[in-house]
Specification:
Length: 290
């Protein structure tokens, strides 16, 4: 990765927008596992920020971006996967084509097995994939008192993008201890099938965290998995290869912001149900005898 730092030269593929604050206008929720579920990995920073550092797919010629993670806890049957995005598009630029509520774009997380997880991890077979068409909320309009193309957050800091969550239902998917995940979507020029037309999705970025995950392990904090078609974005002399979803170095401290939640396996649930049923029978039997 050789992008952070280009911000000073006007590069907006990865941009940092300041202070911590409570999140606004999130799509879905994340971070608190509901009853019966476990968070088995999360790199999403808490408290939620108005905006986060992010990787722009159109700006960085990206087709897929993700990481190699190792799950904590015991459950391995997924319930949800939630990614944090940063949207830089505002309604006034797209009101001729989209509604005030936002724009939708098909987004796909891919989960892969890991080849050689302990030595030189690389992408192996696909475990699961899913595409949904979520609504991406516009970032607020430009605010007087902020530099051009920025809005003022509730903390009075100025931001270029609005962080928000997208949640995917991966019920029925069992994962091993290690996976490589990748997030992909089409922009005007990049993705599996580029749209070939300009759209607000050109301003949609995958959020990054600059602190280690609070649950689970970022197996190599210096490595992210990235498919970009532009060789100049990859770390010189590193393992990165253009147009291949594989490892690239010099990413520390940044890691894609994502949360995996899991539930007990169906066999465990069946066992619990059977135990409860057995208890009920015993009680009835005693009552009958008594
Ligand atoms: Ca990593």
């Amino acid at each position: 990765m050789s992008l952070i730092g280009r911000e000073d030269a006007g590069f907006t593929g990865i941009c940092r927008a300041g202070a911590l604050a409570a999140a606004v206008m999130v799509v879905g929720t994340v971070g608190t596992a509901s009853a019966g579920t476990q968070t088995i990995y999360t790199s999403v920073q808490v408290p939620y920020e108005i905006n986060v550092v992010s990787l722009g797919y159109q700006a960085t010629s990206t087709r897929e971006f993700g990481d190699h993670v190792r799950f904590a806890e015991t459950y391995r049957d997924l319930s949800t996967v939630t990614v944090q995005m940063s949207n830089w598009a505002k309604y006034s630029d797209w009101s001729g084509s989209y509604g005030a509520g936002g724009y939708s774009v098909p987004i796909t997380p891919n989960l892969y097995n890991v080849l050689n997880p302990l030595s030189s991890p690389s992408v192996s077979s696909l475990i699961a994939t899913q595409t949904i068409n979520p609504t991406i909320v516009w970032r607020p309009e430009d605010t007087a008192g902020c530099p051009a193309e920025k809005f003022m957050g509730s903390d009075s800091a100025c931001y270029s993008g609005l962080a928000q969550f997208i949640q995917f239902d991966f019920t029925g998917t069992t994962v091993p201890e290690d996976v490589i995940f990748g997030l992909t979507f089409n922009t005007q020029s990049y993705g599996a099938v580029p749209t070939t037309v300009e759209g607000p999705y050109n301003s949609l970025n995958f959020g990054l965290s600059d602190t280690p995950p609070t649950v689970g392990t970022d197996v190599n904090p210096n490595v992210a998995f990235w498919n970009t078609s532009h060789a100049g974005f990859l770390t010189p002399g590193g393992p990165g290869v253009v147009n291949v979803f594989g490892p690239d170095t010099n990413w520390s401290p940044y890691t894609p912001a994502i949360t995996f939640e899991a539930v007990p396996e169906p066999a465990t649930l069946l066992l619990l149900a059977t135990a409860a049923f057995g208890l009920g029978v015993t009680r009835r039997t005693r009552r009958a005898l008594g």
